[in-house]
Amino acid sequence: MKTIIVLSGGLDSTTLLYKLIAEGKEVKALSFNYGQKHVVELWRASETCKKLGIEHKVIDLSNLKELVSNSALTSDMKVPEGHYAEESMKSTVVPNRNMIMASIAIGWAVNLDYDEVALGVHAGDHAIYPDCRPIFIQMLNDIAHTANFKPIEIYAPFLKLSKGDIVKIGTELGVDYSLTRTCYQKSEEPCGKCGSCCERLEAFEINNLVDPLIYE
Fold it and tell me: Which residues contact 184 (CB under 8 A, 6 or more apart)?
């Protein structure tokens, strides 16, 4: 099985990368600069791929920022603090982000005659992000089967799992979480206060583990 993974550099997609390798799949990684504040995540993704010997491409979509600026991740809008499930976290939605990235990944998979595109979406994303919900993944899979002569599978094994479940899997796989970036802030070190940081810290705590990152 040959797979393109959409790799953000965060905890979820990095764990998925390790999982794909453990499953014996041939993998290439694709990351995107879409003008996000936390662009440092791309450096983390690159470091992980270097460590694992995985081909990694970063696609420059920074001009897209002008078209999807109604988000705290792509504008001067303040990134909200607090729990991930809070209503305020909806300001971190980037319009149609996963559809845009998945479409490019599908195109690369078709071009390479690969079999699937892997996404690290998980159950904790469902409340806030419409393009992380099961119905979206199902419909994306349908599109990936029909948009080209070469049908592509969408592989999202964490779709019904929590971030705590993912950390448990990643720990068993030996994921180097010190090379990941989850925080939505622009700062070099994670803030520990935004919803994404809070969810990550909870995931390690649930597993009786200490997050290797140093927080502000």
Answer: 37, 38, 72, 73, 79, 92, 194, 195, 196, 197
